[in-house]
Amino acid sequence: MSPEMINLIAASTGETLYMVAVSALIATLFGLPLGVYLATSGKGELFAAPWVNRVLGVVVNATRSTPFIILVVAIIPFTRLIAGTSIGTNAAIVPLTIAATPFIARLIEGAIREVDQGLIEAARAFGATPLQIVLKVLIPEALPGIVLGLTLAIVSLLGFSAMVGAVGGGGLGDLGIRYGYQRFMPEMMLAVVVVLIVLVQAVQSIGDRLARRLNKRIRHA
Amino acid sequence: MAHVSDRPQAKVFKGEFMNAPLGYIGDTPAQRLIPAQPIVRLEKVSKTFPGRDGQPVTALRETDLAVPQGSILGVIGRSGAGKSTLIRLVNGLEKPSSGKVIVDGADIAALPEAALRHARRSIGMIFQHFNLLSSRTAAQNIALPLEVAGFDKTEIRTRVEELLALVGLSDKRNRYPSELSGGQKQRVGIARALATKPKVLLSDEATSALDPETTRSILDLLGRINDELGLTILLITHEMAVIRNIAREVAVIEGGRIVEQGDVFDVFTRPRHEVTRSFLAAESGRALPPYVASRLQADATPGSQAVIRIGFRGPHATDPVLARLARDLNIEANILSGSVDEIAGRPFGTLVVGVPEASVSITLDFLKKHGLDTEVLGYVA
Known about the structure:
The complex is a heterodimer.
Chain A: H1 3-40, H2 50-65, H3 68-74, H4 76-83, H5 89-113, H6 117-125, H7 130-160, H8 172-182, H9 186-214
Helix pairs in contact in A: 1-5, 1-7, 1-8, 2-5, 4-5, 5-7, 6-7, 7-9, 8-9
Chain B: H1 16-19, E1 38-49, E2 57-68, E3 72-77, H2 83-90, E4 98-103, E5 106-107, H3 113-120, E6 123-127, H4 138-148, H5 153-166, H6 182-194, E7 200-204, H7 212-229, E8 232-237, H8 240-246, E9 249-254, E10 257-263, H9 264-269, H10 274-281, H11 290-293, E11 305-313, H12 321-329, E12 334-343, E13 346-356, H13 360-369, E14 373-380
Helix pairs in contact in B: 4-5, 4-6, 5-6, 6-7
């Protein structure tokens, strides 16, 4: 493998990591409160607002059911508004974030809903406000589940990021398509796949380990 | 597990109550312990839930209940009798459909949210499944109500140490709930409930998930807290043993109504309602031995024996009545089963005897004259 190829792979890995890290961060920033709200605004819940809950649910589902490549193209005007341009790595972060936010919200909603209702009752019984219940009970108790959800979201983002070559986003997926497929360089394709596998493994095992450490429900020796 | 207290359980009943001669208290209504000012009062409280099929479900109907300050009142009922709803009304986790819930002078149902949250700090609650945060250690769990109430770190640390010592868990302060036994978890639950120095403690089936020995030690702890801190305890349970061991007053709830209420000893020894009897039937000494039960018939036949249950309360518990029956009336009673129990710290004996059918009425007169409770259960040929 030539030094140029290695440089290409290194640069593309950097782009992928950059896109995934920034979009995961922003998506978590939006997805966490959204997920908590989805989990607590149903009928009879802490912030009961069944109508808002239903509307948000529909919006989240609609975003999640749009194929990612369509989303990338469909929101180009919006991307230009936010990023100032519709092509390049920074532009790619916009659709990645939009795709990941509802996904993360649903995962966090699920993790929060796993928390024993008895804990909410106990917290209400000793005089906690709904916000205190969220911050001191629900999120800490759901944390292992939240970490596993975020791990899953980051792994999915690695997959999504392969498609942003369509708007010149660069990254490993783009490299694999242009060099590995279009120029028919199987060794490049193989290298890209190997790097992606290593990245996914690394993210997954870090996430698993962190979730296990946070989970006090199981005894640790 | 370390038992916090090896003190005799009878000390739960304190002061005058214990010094009174046996049988003095509760024998006539006028001599009963005069209840202190009620700290919790339910007035004509009803609660209706919207049912699944649109049909409303009534959990409580026009219930009145008063919990005297400093007492331990146990509410016993079958599942679905309305006892969970009742206890949740007291700290406003449920709102009554009608009626008033007065705790320490405040109408809980009428309080706005912020005032209700404040009021809840003076009403502690413990739960069947403990409801501890798995992500917090014992000490951190106990600290939570204090954090929520806005105490500063130093105050919280001091208070948590006191509470850990009170429930006998100082050496487990840094353990997570998953590393504690059921009894230890409930001790953490109790410490957490006491953190904000409440005036009332609500116990929602707090020992139902524990084995009998652990139940005993938790009840001892609750008794000691009642004794030492003067804390009023309202507990709900489906276990007669809990009432018998700790409660001073009992209310029997069935179908959303309180069907019987009073001093534990009185209610247990002279049950008036069928539900109370059925709870008692499960207790030792109340059930007939199978060889009698299988042959029991409702009507007398010539030559049959009447089966009579005799209840010995208070001062009569030790009278040699059967010996006198034989000597004075020449009636030989045949002992079928018997036991002596302690209820609320006082002895109560039950004896089931068989006497010849011909001498039933004279025997009953004799027993009543001696101040004993009698009940003819049937006849055996």
